[in-house]
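Title: Prediction job returns without error message
Component: structure pipeline
Severity: low
Priority: P3
Assignee: unassigned

Description:
Job completed but the reporter wants confirmation the result is attached to the right record. Sequence as submitted:
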Amino acid sequence: MSATAASVEINYAEALQKSLFFYEVQQAGVLPEWNEVSWRADSMENDIIPGGWFDAGDHFKFALTIAYTATLLAWGYLEYGDAVKKAGLDEKYLNNLKWGLDYIVAADQGGSVVATIGKDGFDHTWWGSPEVYLRKMKLATGATERPYDSTTATSVLALCASSLAAGYLVYKDANYLTHAKSLYEAADKTRSNDGQGMGKAYYPATDFYDELFYAANWMYMATGDQKYLDECEKDFIPNFPLETQSTTRKYTWGFCWDDHSQAAALLYAINTGKEEWIEQIHRHLEFWTTGYDGKQVGHTPDGMAWLFQWGSTRHAANTVFLALVAADKLFKDIKQLYEKNKKFAKDQMEYFFGKNDLGLTYVIGMGEKNPRSVHHRAASGIHDDHWNSLGTDEKTEFQTEYAHVLYGALEGGPNQDGSFTDNVGSYQNTEVAIDYNAGFTAALCGMIKDYGGQKLKDFPPIEKPKWPEFLISASINQAAGTYTEIKVFAMNHSAWPTRVIKDLSYNYYFDISEVLDAGLTLEDITVKVGNDQHSGDEGKISISGPHLYKGTVYYVKLTFNDGRVVMPTGQSEHRSECQFRISIPDPKQGIWDPTNDYSFQGLEQNVMKETPYITMYDGDKLIWGIEPDGTKPE
């Protein structure tokens, strides 16, 4: 660790509390009552398998990463559940773990699983919130349901079996074990990663024997049946990867969603006590610490163990968890190895929490200084699909500020030279994902055991909107002696949570005293919509009035047939343009005077300006502007 890196104090229970918050942010479908993310709402309720977790900063759902994540969360709890309870996070932890496990149960189709749900291409080209995803997808593609595919790929089935076997050990739910057994049998029978479908483009599972080895150990732990260990000895260990041009079992690389070799080896060492497998884990952890046989993982100049540019913190965090478990289960009586691995865990965790040369805490919502950018659609609250300026100081009409704090998410992390590209487009650095947080969350459980901590009493905070969610901008098209023509943008920039309003309308107020003084009546005033952006769809605007407000002040009401067409999904959808005219008969030139009209104040010719004097409504509820008597939204 660099001498310039500042020391840090870490409340690991707070960190775990916030990491669980991140998983609640990622929830799809109808949100459970215990979800505490004030700015999230239901989404993708009609998925073929509802629920589960969105994968990363997008809206795909992958059985592979959900199962991988659930297994690690379960493993962390099985090893360090007493610490989780002591920190006061037991119920919260178990709720979140069960959410992932229940999705895997539902995805099990008997011999196959629903592997991927999402619109390939669309998910990575559109930037917006999950609550309005389906509306944008329908507009862009015509589809009303998200496509999905199923797979018999061994790696996916084996990971699903692992998650449910581990889940059974936590909950003793017989249904989990039933599904785990059948999924394991299907994975073992198939022994092929062919037919991965859409998921292969994002998570291409390679070798499958490591996942089978991993799953067999979990099945043994869940059932006590020796046959699973026998299968390891007979089939899976002979296929354990080797070092290049060597007969030595592979100890380099690291534990992640596509490589379960070392995690499986650790479980097998614990389950059997065999010295050769204890030595295997020793070699692997030496590679990650001080090196073994001339080979050592890379490091940033300021001390983070660095394996690969995609989610570098993820690999280090996964190894922290393996090191903690190995120290507690295998090296407890070997002082030098015990202390070495505990120190590695502490050093790496402190790096994540700000003890690095940049002073950056890569865990959002922790520490003194976080990256400004995070590659995450829902957290951005973007309404116009223009995300490039997020986290910058650009002087631009586009959004630069994130709507939400993505508490607990572990960002991808630094480059090998210790630098960090703090840019929303630099997804190797700023992406977050459920698998990034998986080993990290499990490791936090172990760190609470070693260092204690207590959850925050007033977390999470209920966010207040940082900007108006519904608003009006307007300009004068024309103002003459017999009429006023106004151009209006009705806008939806909602993000707390992102939503649409069916019964949407707005009022334009005007004073008719000069009309009455000239001897005309209310019947001489006509109102008419000219250009309407939604004249050809379900949002078509109708205009009514004049309606009496008070005294000589009247208003016209412009009402959407279906206001949900005004949606925060893109540059043309987040605002609805309408031009309307209020007039008296043409022969009455010079009578009409808009300057005394309440809603006319502050407007300029052909310059769109935000105005509070044209009020907007959700049904009868005022949601934008100030009525002439001073009434404001609640």
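Comment from assignee: result matches the submitted record. The mean pLDDT is 97.
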